[in-house]
Amino acid sequence: MALYESKTELWDLDINVIQPEGKGPDPATDGNSSTEPFRDAFQRYIQPCLAELLGSSLFIFVGCLSVIENTEGTGRLQPALAHGLALGIVIAVGGHFNPAVSVSVFLIGGLNITLLVPYILAQMLGVSKLLARTVISPSMNYAKVSGAAFDTVQADTQIVPATVAEVIMTLFLTMVVCMGAVNGRTRSLLAPLCIGLTVTADILAGGAVSGACMNPARAFGPAVVADYWSYHWIYWVGPMSGALLTASFIRLLLGDEKTRVLLI
């Protein structure tokens, strides 16, 4: 990957910061000009999707591994720390790893429309749950038949609280992502740490209400492997609604001049 272009839309590297003007190869002329279109297409489209596929698999693998065994002794602390730390690490490399995040970043102008669907497909195709069940094979290790699928909601009376919790927690997460990593005026190098801590806080606070998913890809993979679909729609409606709210707040009120629709 060339220094002048990041492999995802989330991080926008400036070549003048990394490489002073007049030094090093010229991005426009570096390499064989006949292969430049192919290399450019690879870096713009294929490489980001591969990063999403690999990063999502690693993140969800760690998340599934943290909850797939009996965790009565650790409660929500173990999955909260595992998810938060894993997400902070993989985001530092670059990527979204969450369809709700991709939608919110797209809606505020941080992701090209041609990459939105490929990003989401790559995030959904992770093989993490299969890997998690491979490394933990004895059936006695599974506390619940659903494995790492979300099964917190067991009755219709829990639908509204769980959905509202998912909306608010995803709003919190996507707001941190968009304001800390995409919005020009508030973007910070500490964004990966802040995003990971947000996930940890959400799981500790809302794990008992909805399972604190905030990520349709995290819910979808385990549901497919475990064939557990009870109330699965909550983990799509809640996070996507939270992403839409985030985009609305940033576009209307909180974004910088390039992002805000209402220039007041």
Automatic annotation (TrEMBL):
Main location: membrane
Membrane-related topology note: Multi-pass membrane protein
CC terms in the record's Gene Ontology section: plasma membrane
Keyword field: Membrane, Transmembrane, Transmembrane helix, Transport
Compartments, as annotated in UniProt: Membrane
Membrane-spanning ranges: 49-68, 80-97, 104-122, 159-182, 189-213, 233-254
GO molecular function, one term: water channel activity
Gene3D superfamilies assigned to the protein according to its UniProt record, in alphabetical order: Glycerol uptake facilitator protein
Signal peptide: none
Keyword Transmembrane: yes
Origin: domain of life: Eukaryota
Family of this protein: Belongs to the MIP/aquaporin (TC 1.A.8) family.
Protein name per the record: Aquaporin 8
Organism field: Oncorhynchus tshawytscha (Chinook salmon)
Lineage: Eukaryota, Metazoa, Chordata, Craniata, Vertebrata
Gene: LOC112225773
